Amino acid sequence: MNSVNLTCVECPLGCSITVCLKDGKVESVSGNSCPRGKAYAESEVVCPKRVLTTTVKTADGRILAVKTDNPVPKADLMKLMQRINGIIANTPVKIGDIIVKNLIEGVNLVATDYLE
Ligand code: SF4
After folding, report:
1. Are residues 29 and 62 in the same domain?
2. 15 lines ligand 1 (CB under 6 A)
3. Under 8 Å between Cβ of 66 and 51
4. Is residue 116 one of the residues assigned to a domain?
5. pTM for this model (two decimals)
6. Among residues 96, 97, 68, which one has the least CA distance to residue 83?
7. Which of 28, 46, 79, 106 is least surrounded, with the fewest CB atoms within 10 Å of its CB?
């Protein structure tokens, strides 16, 4: 059995969490102060995810800030960036507008800026 030490990033408390693994599977989670920390730790050791924040071009040559509306697997970030690099957004656009629906597994790419 081996263990992984993590700092939970789900809230500002930043609990120190220890995940014990056996044969690549989670045996136990300790140090978390709430269920969110347990879920974060289990996900982080099995399939770490991150919100992808980047920019896309607009049809008139400007740059629009975007992000995924939920975390995506870290292993897919490069593949998603290649796809996003080819996207041209139409304007006007406001914060929260969906730029790409279902970018991956039900996660959308949304605008984080306003452009007229
Ligand atoms: S385990 Fe819970 S209380 Fe601790 S940092 Fe994570 S979300 Fe916050």
Report:
1. no
2. yes
3. no
4. no
5. 0.79
6. 68
7. 106
Q: What's the number of domains the chain is made of?
A: 2
Looking at ligand 1, which atom is closest to the CA of residue 32? 1
Shared domain for 64 and 103, answered yes or no, is: yes
CATH of the domain at 71: 3.10.530.10
Give yes or no for residue 47 CB within 6 A of ligand 1.
Answer: no
The pLDDT-based confidence of 24 (bands split at 50, 70, 90) is: confident
Domain encompassing residue 29: 2-46
Q: Which helix (H) or strand (E) holds 65?
A: strand 63-68
30: pLDDT confidence band, cut at 50, 70 and 90? very high
The answer to whether residue 1 scores a pLDDT higher than 80 is: no
Ligand 1 pocket check for 79: Cβ under 6 Å: no
